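Q: Could you fold this chain for me?
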Amino acid sequence: MPDHYDALILGAGPAGGGVASRLAKAGLNVAMTDSGPYGGTCPLTGCNPKKVLLGPADLSQMAAHMKGKGIICKPSVNWQELMAFKRTFTEPIPERAFKAYSQEGVTTLTGGGRFTGPDSVEIDGRELTADNIFICTGVRARPLSFPGAEHLIDNAGFLDMDELPEHIVLVGGGYIAMEFAAIAHYCGARVTVLQRSDAILRGFDNELSGLLMQAMRDAGITLILNAPIISVDKTGGRLRVCYGEEGNESVIADAVVNCAGRVPNIETLNLEAAGVETGSKGVQVKPTMQSVSNPKVWAVGDVADTPYELTPTAVLEAEVAVANVLDPAANKEADYTGIPTSCFTLPPLAACGLTAAQAARQGIPHTVITQDLPSKFPWKRLGEQYGRSKVILDANKEYILGAHILGHNAEEMINLFAMAIRNRIPLDTLHSTYWAYPTCGYYIQYLVKE
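A: Sure. Below is the predicted structure, expressed as structure tokens.
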């Protein structure tokens, strides 16, 4: 007979871990497995290591801006030392996570899961059944099909390079490409970004993403639009990247990174056997995080066909799913109001709530307040040349509908806007608050005034 559990979780990242811990603490018999190391993308090959590598890059950018204002020389980065420092964060995680879940009472398994029926999964030849099965397998780099695509590395490869290439080409124009471009450039590499379409960071406000592109080009990053990759081939120990509509443009690089988006990590799960329906972004779920086609199956985190691929939303969705398993009558739904997102470029770009274009499409009367930041003290003191905020208010200017910030500390300021949007805090409350001076947060009161 197969082993039976109250809940079986496929994937041991933030989403799966959030489900497993909560259900185990509630007294359920829980098992969890992963085909890779425990911890998931964000702590191992995504958010956390990226932020570690970004630290020296941030210092390098600040020094460049302060040249002639007291800083004499730009610091240089020892990539080997930086990578060793990064590994002090990532290497302990798998063992630590595995032990932590075990101590919480979770049966910790290793190996990829494959559905054999609506409530059964095979893991390394062992069949398990469960009343509730959670798909928390995340996403992976989008496969590329042009000749020579096998020569590219992905995000995990970039974040674990022993040497920083002299010239690196990044394929794509989303979060990963823009963040890696900033890291590599300010750590000392020559960087070329090849984006197949005519814009970068399409999920953000177009004006601010365009200004970011200008800032990156001004810093010395080569960013080429309308540049689909035709082929990559090895030449003299290096890589030749052919691009353009006709393929008649080329660049020689020491490394090429696939930053062309992410796809749901579901291809080995045999979802057909469980009758689980999928969409373009992953497993189709109800607002309760339950599969639309199999009530025994749930999907949480990046693998679910939901609006965001973020660690905070993975936590949110885990909370919602667990609440509904423990009390099916609760019918709790995921509420994504006021979810902030940040692109850790230099300068950083952050957003929360509606853009002006989204408000217009939805027929919501609104007012847009735009402010340039480099002339304001917190940014001027750092020699910032590019920065802008756009705040979307309701027509009566009583509430914030959206906030978009490009500039130093944007990733921190956006959290205050997120709190205001999610909790519908009136502007009068923001105006009556006394903020620490002189800080970036102090200027929020001015970013919401015309």
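A (continued): DSSP finds 14 helices and 23 strands in the chain.
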